[in-house]
Amino acid sequence: MKKVLVCGAGGFIGGHLVKKLKKEGHWVRGVDLKKHEYSLSPADEFIVGDLTEQDLVKQVLDQPFDEIYQLAADMGGAGYLFTGENDANVMHNSATINLNIIHRSHQVGAKKIFYSSSACIYPAYNQEDPANPKCSEESAYPALPDSEYGWEKLFSERLYLAFHRNYGLDVRIARFHNVFGPEGTWTGGKEKAPAALCRKVAEADENGSIEVWGDGLQTRSFLYIDECLEAVDRLMKSDFIGPVNIGSEEMVSLNQLAEIVMDIARKPLSINNIPVSFTGVRGRNSDNHLIKEKLNWAPSKPLEEGLIKTYEWIREQVNAAVLTA
């Protein structure tokens, strides 16, 4: 039985990770600003607190855990990250958390630590063509992320690698590409595209319409949570440090994503594309050559399979909200 710490355990990916670790029989301590909103955490201990505070980090990291998963960050969807209105908080809070966690991990002699970076670190100049984005791991430099969120993630990658080089800390780094699934944020402004579109479709009247930000031609790939956690597990069990992409290579436009959700819901809605200034890069897709080479594996399940499960869960949340309104 391993002793494991999950930072960000009250979030979407962290919540699912805690459940997976407990099913495998490990002792788990979770920490986050708040407990999980949509399900009861099975963590053996759950500490509610702010990881930007050094005293809290000392309380949380009081022993040499076998594994630490650092998922905690100030984040959200495009409406939160790309407007520019939250840049100071995003950079300060996330960087402070990572500085605190990696320093304390070294102090207590932590055995292995995973850091969740993001596809947002990739240069904007390689993602201008929605049909042909370049997101291979080595293309991160010369650096030019399209958001301060991406810049902070890139800085923190270098921070973890520096602690590996200078102090021998055993680190693993993955760049997540749009992970989605049930029990994630689906309303309130911090939700990402799959959840937002599932909510809009679930709320829409038959033969009505939904809004899609931008012209809808911007492309992305989306990875279901189960495959994300499988990739993290394989990375942690390997001797490969990373950074490595963890994402799907099934690229779709935002309008196509909306159409898939409408087909799942059996709602023939129309799409109303809304001009906005914060849609992010024009194209982004995971390049899985390196993960195939290093881990002999890559995500393979079709997007629609995960969207079916996600839409059903969000539809239930929408219906429950209506009943309690």
Topology, please?
Elements: E1 3-7, H1 12-23, E2 27-32, E3 45-48, H2 54-60, E4 67-70, H3 78-81, H4 87-108, E5 113-118, H5 148-167, E6 171-176, E7 179-180, H6 193-203, E8 209-213, E9 219-221, E10 223-224, H7 225-237, E11 244-246, E12 251-253, H8 254-265, E13 270-274, H9 289-295, H10 303-324
Parallel strand pairs: 1-2, 1-4, 2-3, 4-5, 5-6, 6-11, 7-10, 8-13
Antiparallel strand pairs: 9-12
- CATH topology of the largest domain, by name, is Rossmann fold
Spatial separation of the terminal alpha carbons: 45 Å
Give me the secondary-structure category. alpha/beta
State the name of the first-level CATH class of the largest domain.
Alpha Beta
Count up the helices.
10
Tell me the count of domains.
2
Q: In percent terms, what proportion of residues is strand?
A: 15-25%
Poorly predicted segments = none
CATH superfamily of the largest domain: NAD(P)-binding Rossmann-like Domain
Main pleated-sheet profile? 7 strands, parallel
H-E order: EHEEHEHHEHEEHEEEHEEHEHH
Range of helix content: 40-55%
- CATH second-level architecture of the largest domain: 3-Layer(aba) Sandwich
Number of strands: 13
The rounded Rg comes to 19 Å
- Neighbour order of strands in the largest sheet: 3-2-1-4-5-6-11
pLDDT averaged over residues:
96
Oligomer: single chain
* Global morphology: globular
